[in-house]
Amino acid sequence: MREKELRRHMAVFPIGSVMTLTDLTARQIRYYEEQGLILPKRSKGNRRLYSLNDMDRLLEIKDFLDEGLNMAAIKAHYAQEKPVSTRSKSKKPLSDADVRQILHDDLLRQGRFNQPTQHLGGHRLGR
């Protein structure tokens, strides 16, 4: 993961800062946590700490609610995203050979290099 992305995942903001930046109440933020929409980290003193990604999610939830979505629809939206992220984490990393094979297969599937060529006057021309 790149440094920028690592920093976005760092949980460093207390709930007061999140309230100021998102214009949400502590009660709303805790409710979204209860609903499983955000999962703040906890400090050694058991205080909630939020990341930039958590704040992005809270602002997105706020937008969804403003658009008229209910909590069930918002949960369904995020439930669809989870399988993608958990699936990518469970896969083993690709080796260089794997990447080359995938690229080769994609090129063949596109048909670009899999088509027969025509010969014209000793010159080879693609279709």
Structure description:
The chain is mainly alpha-helical and 127 residues long. It has six helices and five strands. A three-stranded antiparallel β-sheet has the order 1-3-2. Strands 4-5 form a two-stranded antiparallel sheet. A hairpin with a 5-residue loop joins strand 2 and strand 3. The longest helix has 20 residues. It is extended, with a radius of gyration of 24 Å. The two termini are 42 Å apart. About 6% of the residues have low confidence.
Topology:
Blueprint: H1 3-9, E1 13-14, H2 15-22, H3 26-34, E2 41-42, E3 48-50, H4 52-66, H5 71-90, H6 96-110, E4 118-120, E5 123-125
Antiparallel strand pairs: 1-3, 2-3, 4-5
Task: Give the H and E element order.
Answer: HEHHEEHHHEE
Q: What is the helix fraction of residues, given as a range?
A: 55-70%
Radius of gyration: 24 Å
Q: Would you count the extended β strands for me?
A: 5
Oligomer: single chain
Provide the structure class.
mainly alpha
Order of strands across the main sheet:
1-3-2
Profile the largest sheet.
Answer: 3 strands, antiparallel
Distance between the termini: 42 Å
> Could you tell me the mean pLDDT?
80
Would you identify the regions where 5 or more consecutive residues have pLDDT less than 50? 84-90
Shape: extended
Portion in strands: 5-15%
Count of alpha/pi helices: 6
